[in-house]
Amino acid sequence: MRLILFGPPGAGKGTQAKLMIEAFGLPHISTGDILRSEVKNNTELGKKAKAYMESGKLVPDTLVTEMVKSRLSSSDVKNGFILDGFPRTEGQARSLDNILPGGIDRAIYLETSEDVVVQRLTGRRVCPKCGTNYHLKNMPPKKDMICDQCQVGLYQRPDDNEATVKNRLHVYLQESEGVLGYYRVQGKLENVSGDLDSKDVFSVIQKIISSLK
Ligand code: ADP
Ligand code: ADP
Ligand code: ZN
Q1: By the 8 A CB rule, do 189 and 109 touch?
Q2: Nearest to 71 by CA among 99, 51, 91
Q3: Most Cβ neighbours (<10 Å): which of 36, 75, 158, 199?
């Protein structure tokens, strides 16, 4: 199964991907996670991507597409995957169809209102070790600011500040219709409300996946 999770920053893509990995065992490919690790390791790609990410702009299509192409050539994705955070532009969606003969099975669109995503992004806290996303109010860890699994301190992503969040939402609004339209005409778009509780979003996704089997 080749699935895409699409939606504004803060819609809950990473959170749903984690539930989907546990339930279906599909590999999770998050372009944001890969880029953050490139920046952390100060690679050539990381050096090029850093300033874009810090200001909330998109990293250029050519760089991100090459990165995804290389990841999709690994043997662990032969039986399917969950792509989270890619494609983000219509150009990236076209490139993905060129990389993958037959294209994807479904693009799951987590349609989420703006006030909800702003509240989610500003309260998001992340485990530096396992990458689990928590939220100060919505999904707090058991111990204050400590990951439930790893027992290490959580951090706030540098791009989850108010000014950068505003920029990311602006970029999303500019690019999203192109991506949605691209999959809509292919009959592959599934709308799911991202405003719901995480478990309710997940049960809608489970129904979509069962219908594909
Ligand atoms: P979120 O989970 O909040 O939507 P991501 O972790 O997916 O954010 O992405 C963080 C940043 O990484 C983006 O703001 C952008 O700069 C860069 N990025 C991630 N995926 C892509 C992509 N497909 N195309 C261009 N830039 C990307
Ligand atoms: P994305 O990957 O789309 O940027 P995340 O999965 O990181 O989004 O979720 C953003 C923030 O919102 C996180 O702090 C997460 O704990 C919280 N969150 C995710 N899904 C929900 C939900 N359905 N209801 C409330 N909070 C949520
Ligand atoms: Zn952890």
Answers
A1: yes
A2: 99
A3: 36
